[in-house]
């Protein structure tokens, strides 16, 4: 299985047909970006904890509407995908066998909108088991790359590893009809770095990238990329599978990582 980083942008992606990324995600299965997974592991920028945490859910995942001030219809949307308790335990096992010695289990938390909004477009049948893994935004890119590296065996077990965030994510600077230079410069740097395989530069993005702190004042929506990247491996090939802008500064750039064959 390849790994992916999906920019989920605004929660309105769930209902707004004018957002180009919505059509990209709705065509996911038709475009055959990957074979049908046995289970899906989502690393979402909307679950940020002190230590790595997995949601261990038997039965159906609850749909968490973790956004405010949006149209009422959005709060009626449901994505009742089955939980993936076996996958959750496997994730914990792999992390603890690596350098992550403390992994929490959350037996109540369902799917936040970083998970269910893209998944309801990609796999609308909601019949594939889904597990979430949290980020630790007080750590760095290398930490999250190593988190992904520990999860690499899952690719051979039919698991789709999907980071979900936003290629640029500065909610204090959204709006406008044109893309400002700081957003464009960061987004272009990221694309070039990934396609050229400069993963160490991406791990040290806060030092290497132009306008890094403007593009990501807080890194929670960026670190899911590092997990997907790390899970694919150091010689993986990156591909830009979608690119569009919304609200001036939100990049929906999304990437596929294919593990190098020996």
TrEMBL record:
Protein family: Belongs to the DODA-type extradiol aromatic ring-opening dioxygenase family.
Cofactor: Zn(2+)
Keyword Metal-binding: yes
Domain of life: Eukaryota
Pfam families from the UniProt entry: LigB
Residue span(s) of domain Extradiol ring-cleavage dioxygenase class III enzyme subunit B: 3-257
The protein's name: Extradiol ring-cleavage dioxygenase class III enzyme subunit B domain-containing protein
GO molecular function: ferrous iron binding; oxidoreductase activity, acting on single donors with incorporation of molecular oxygen, incorporation of two atoms of oxygen; zinc ion binding
Organism: Lithocarpus litseifolius
Gene3D superfamilies attached to this UniProt entry: LigB-like
Keyword annotations from UniProtKB, A to Z: Dioxygenase, Metal-binding, Oxidoreductase, Zinc
Annotated SUPFAM superfamilies: LigB-like (SSF53213)
């Amino acid at each position: 299985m390849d790994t992916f980083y999906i920019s989920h942008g605004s929660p309105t992606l769930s209902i707004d047909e004018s957002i180009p990324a919505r059509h990209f995600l709705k065509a996911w299965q038709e475009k055959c970006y990957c074979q049908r997974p046995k289970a899906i592991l989502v690393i979402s920028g909307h679950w940020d904890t002190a230590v790595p945490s997995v949601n261990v859910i038997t039965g159906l995942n609850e749909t968490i509407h973790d956004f405010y001030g949006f149209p009422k219809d959005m709060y009626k949307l449901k994505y009742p995908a089955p939980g993936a308790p076996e996958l959750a335990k496997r994730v914990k096992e792999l992390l603890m066998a690596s350098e992550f010695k403390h992994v929490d289990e959350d037996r109540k938390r369902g799917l936040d909108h970083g998970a269910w909004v893209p998944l309801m477009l990609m796999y609308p049948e909601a019949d594939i088991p889904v597990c979430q893994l949290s980020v630790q935004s007080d750590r760095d890119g290398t930490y999250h790359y190593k988190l992904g590296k520990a999860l690499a065996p899952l690719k051979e077990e039919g698991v789709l590893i999907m980071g979900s965030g936003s290629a640029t994510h500065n909610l204090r600077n959204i709006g406008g009809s044109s893309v400002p230079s700081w957003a464009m410069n960061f987004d272009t740097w990221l694309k070039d770095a990934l396609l050229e395989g400069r993963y160490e530069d991406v791990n040290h993005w806060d030092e290497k990238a132009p306008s890094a702190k403007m593009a990501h004042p807080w890194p929670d929506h960026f670190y899911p990329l590092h997990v997907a990247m790390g899970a694919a491996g150091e010689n993986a090939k990156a591909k830009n599978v979608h690119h569009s802008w919304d609200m001036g500064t939100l990049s929906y750039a999304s990437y596929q990582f294919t593990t190098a064959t020996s």
